[in-house]
Amino acid sequence: MSIPQAIGIIDSGVGGLTVAREVIRQLPREQILYFGDNARCPYGSRSAREIRRFANQMIQFVMRHPVKALVIACNTAAAVVLEEVRSRTDVPVIGVIEPGARAAISASRTGRIGIIGTELTIRAGAYQRVLHRLKPEVYTVGMACPAFVPLVESGRYDSPEAQRIVEETIAPLTHEELDTLILGCTHYPLLAPLIQQAIGRDVALISSAEETARELSTLLSLHNLYADERASGPRHQFFTSGDAERFRQIGEAWLGFALEVQTAALDPLYQV
Ligand code: DGL
Questions:
Q1: 99 lines ligand 1 (CB under 6 A)
Q2: Residue of 185, 203, 216, 250 marked active site
């Protein structure tokens, strides 16, 4: 069943829930329609061509519902498809990279900014480009952390194993004298306590979620799209291409309320 005028949010899995949580906090009247492609997660080590096809399948699914704005809450997908989706879609489309980069620039005092993300996001230099455009003299260092997403998707994000993996992965960045570290993957905020411990308390961790929700709010206001104040409480919908029960468990722990999650198949015929 469709819901009226929702905010569509897509990610390769549960990571976009970090953005959904912030949207719900900042815009409590808005309804969310979330799709997580858990069956094919992680995206980060796939080719750009494959990610483009998968992201377009998710967008096609979401746009079949009455959606008034779309958030690509996946850095990896946003790095590949954001501009082309924007140019062919008639609802506002928001990514997470620009908002995250802006938040990092305003948080950093020394201009030494690290970026952690998936292999594709780091290889594409997606954050580095925006950071240098915003502030050319900034120093940036990017590092791919391919072991992080599987820890989150399997629900082991606060296990001793996660602590060991995060510590080992982050260690090379501790010599970079960073004052700001961008969590350039929407799955990583679930590992934030461990990442903070590994990088040190003096380094500010930046998650795109807050700034993305703020940008969404600005866009809704600009296009006069805010939910009607008289409407009854929002009924969010969550879809996954994978295991609905696992999604529900992680989602409820992160969002703090009961979720109804449906497994939905994506159109296999979509070709770019
Ligand atoms: N959460 C996604 C991101 O922000 C992708 C993680 C993955 O599927 O590798 O990049």
A1: no
A2: 185
CATH ID of 97-208, from 3.40.50.1860, 3.40.50.300, 2.60.40.60, 3.30.460.10:
3.40.50.1860
The mean of the pLDDT values for the chain is: 94
For ligand 1, whether the C-beta of 15 sits within 6 Å is yes
CA of 187 to the centre of ligand 1 (A): 6
pLDDT (average), residues 129-142: 98
Query: What confidence score (pLDDT) does residue 232 get?
Result: 75
Ligand 1 contact, 5 CB (< 6 A): no
Query: For the whole model, what pTM was predicted?
Result: 0.94
* Length of the chain counted residue by residue: 272
The closest residue, in CA terms, to atom 2 on ligand 1 is 74
Average pLDDT of the segment spanning 128-133:
97
Catalytic annotation present for 74: yes
pLDDT for the residue numbered 228:
82
In this prediction, residue 115 carries a pLDDT of 98
The encoded tokens of residue 242 equal 């994978």
Rounded distance from Cα 106 to ligand 1 centre (Å): 24
Give pLDDT, residue 233: 80
CA 79 from centre of chain: 11
Q: Which of 19, 62, 67, 74 is catalytic?
A: 74
185 a catalytic residue: yes
265 class by beta-carbon count within 10 Å (0-12 exposed, 13-18 middle, 19+ buried): exposed
The 10s digit of each residue's pLDDT in 225-261 is 999 877 778 999 999 999 999 999 999 999 999 999 9
Q: How far apart are CA 258 and CA 11, in angstroms?
A: 20
d(CA 168, CA 189): 18
Q: What is the fold, at CATH topology level, of the domain defined by 6-95+210-263?
A: Rossmann fold (3.40.50)
Locate the domains of the chain by residue range.
6-95+210-263, 97-208
